[in-house]
Specification:
Oligomer: single chain
Number of helices: 7
Distance between the termini: 37 Å
Strand order of the largest sheet: 1-2
Number of domains: 2
Radius of gyration: 26 Å
Helix content: 55-70%
CATH topology of the largest domain: DNA polymerase, domain 1
Structural class: mainly alpha
Shape: elongated
Length: 152
C-alpha cells in the first residue's frame, strides 16, 4: 500500500485504469511475484473498505497477463557440484574428523556419508538431503540401504 500511495503517488480507492498503469510502469523493475503480492494487497484494501475491487477488472487482468508474457519469470537452476568441489569438501571433512572430539567426529562422518553416498552418487538435491530422516533410512547388512523420500 505504501509503495502504491507514497512512492508511486496514487490515491485510494484506485481505478482499474490506475492499477493497469501501476503494473505497466513497474513491470521492468519488479518480479511477477512482487507485482502479484502488491495486487493482492490492493485487492484486500478495497475489500476491507467495502469497495469494488479494481484488481479483478478485465483491464487489470489483461495488463498482468501481458506482463507475464513479455517478462516471463526466470527459473534459477542450481549449479551441480563438480568433482573438484566434492573432493575439496570431502578433504575438509576428513581433516575435521581427525582433529575434533568424538561428537564432532560423528557429525562430520555423517555429513561425509550424506554428501558422498546419497548426495553425489544418488543425485539427491540439497532439499532432499535436508528432509531425510533416520526413520526413513533402512540399512540391511550385506545388501545395502533403502531411503524413503516423502517429498522430492
Amino acid at each position: 500500500m505504501r509503495h502504491f500511495e507514497v512512492e508511486w503517488g496514487a490515491f485510494l480507492p484506485a481505478s482499474a485504469d490506475g492499477i493497469a498503469r501501476y503494473l505497466a510502469q513497474h513491470a521492468d523493475q519488479q518480479s511477477i511475484a512482487t507485482l502479484r503480492q502488491r495486487l493482492a494487497a490492493l485487492s484486500r484494501w478495497h475489500q476491507d473498505h467495502g469497495l469494488a475491487d479494481p484488481t479483478k477488472a478485465p483491464l487489470a487482468r489483461q495488463t498482468m497477463k501481458g506482463i507475464q508474457t513479455v517478462h516471463p519469470p526466470q527459473t534459477r537452476q542450481a549449479v551441480p557440484l563438480q568433482i573438484g568441489q566434492l573432493s575439496h569438501a570431502v578433504t575438509s571433512l576428513d581433516h575435521a574428523i581427525g582433529t575434533q572430539g568424538a561428537i564432532a567426529q560423528r557429525r562430520h562422518t555423517r555429513d561425509k556419508a550424506l554428501l558422498l553416498l546419497l548426495g553425489f552418487w544418488r543425485g539427491l538435491r540439497s532439499g532432499e538431503l535436508i528432509r531425510l530422516e533416520t526413520q526413513n533410512v533402512e540399512l540391511v547388512p550385506g545388501q545395502g540401504m533403502t531411503c524413503f523420500l516423502p517429498r522430492t
